[in-house]
Amino acid sequence: MSTPVVILGSGLAGISVARELRKFDAAVAITLVTADDGTFYSKPMLSNALAAGKTPAQLAMTPAVTLAAQLKAEIRPHTRVTAIATDRRVVVTDAGEIGYDKLVIALGGEPIRLPLEGNGAADVLFVNSLADYAPFRERLNGCRRVAILGAGLIGCEFANDLVTTGFEVDVFDIAPQPLGRLLPAQTAEFFRRRLEQAGVRFHFGSSIVRVERQGESYALWEARGDRHDADLVLSAIGLKPRVALAQAAGLKVNRGIVADHRLTTSVADIYAVGDCAEVAGLNLPFVLPIMQQARALAKTLAGTATEVSYPAMPVVVKTPACATVVCPAPVGAQGQWNEDATADGSRALFEDAAGIPIGFALVGAASAEKQALVNGMPVWL
Amino acid sequence: MRTWLCVVCGFIYDETAGDPEHGIAPGTRWDDVPANWSCPDCGVAKADFEMVAV
């Protein structure tokens, strides 16, 4: 016997697909399989929970039992999928097989790990889920100095959260600036100064290669030989799509699991959404694309084949020390940044050959212009 | 006056404060927030995801 819709993964992508599908089909049986405990929580809140005064327990919004009742779905927590047998339409798990008619892969991403040397390398923490976050908070007790590897969005958000709540924070990145993928140089400079004024210590052009235990704390060594000390090391280098299961099952995989505009993978009746998916050539690990995908796929699963569309989707960086919002230009679009920095902010427009803005980055006071600018942005897909 | 939590990103809509930057005057009740309003932080539409009373 098979289940009409089987969803792998209980992150925002998997749960949103189930939630959206219920809006169109109250009856279809849904089984959601997850290696986690199936609690619904807001992942974006993890990187500002300290300042918000939230404990890991308070971040757990909906336990699996309640969620299952809300979604009228079967949730199988603590169940790890080991294989997909596409020929038999069966998902193989460590707790038996589950047959499917339609399969949705929403397994997310996994943290990129730097190849670190030293006997402290294994103690470096990664926070990519609520399950990772609880031990991070546990370990923070008694710590004073936190080292963060990576000055991207997640690294900067954690740095702001930690420094606001009394920790000493050093952030290391091989790039010459924070938010290297999002901000042009002058605007990044404004952002850097604001976070430094809040107390964050940045180390750019710096790559940590070795972490050694020193009693209760750690010594971090840069490639160029400089040493820094910290009580806890958090790695926030970025995420890579989780593709191993799909790859082993013979699905086409590029950076992410390859899916078309209808979220269909290279194998019929198997769909991919969220951070693990490369939809129409784009792997966009942010909330808004996931919601767009979930809505489109839900309609398809309910019987109306629907293509996903992306409006311009601004990304808010939750750094209270410097309000920041970035709307990247469509992938592959040519143009150049035109930056206008003032004493209280910086507005950067990414302009095409005709001088028309097709993307923007706003920091400080300029972030208030988001709404006015976003309406004129070209759609992404 | 009540507050509502965006379950996707944690943004809190406080009826007392409204969202003046996006045209929602202070004191606007949740029910009166227009359907095309979206979460200022993550952009998810009012109609499309759930907000819960905190």
Oligomer: heterodimer
Mean pLDDT over all positions of chain B? 84
Largest sheet of chain B: 3 strands, antiparallel
What is the strand arrangement across the widest sheet of chain B?
Answer: 2-1-3
Largest sheet of chain A: 7 strands, mixed
Q: Can you tell me about this structure?
A:
The complex is a heterodimer of chains A (381) and B (54). In chain A, 23% of the residues lie in helices and 31% in strands. Chain A has 381 residues and is an alpha/beta fold. In chain A, strands 1, 2, 5, 6, 7, 8 and 20 form a seven-stranded mixed β-sheet that branches. In chain A, strands 10-17-11-12-13 form a five-stranded parallel β-sheet, with helices on one face. In chain A, helix 1 runs parallel beside helix 8. The longest helix of chain A is centred in the last third of the chain and has 15 residues. Chain B is mostly beta strands and 54 residues long. The model of chain B has no long low-confidence stretch (mean pLDDT 84). The N and C termini of chain B lie close together (12 Å). Helix content of chain B is 0%, strand content 19%. Chain B has a three-stranded antiparallel β-sheet, with no helix packed on it. Chains A and B meet through helix 8 of A and loops of B.
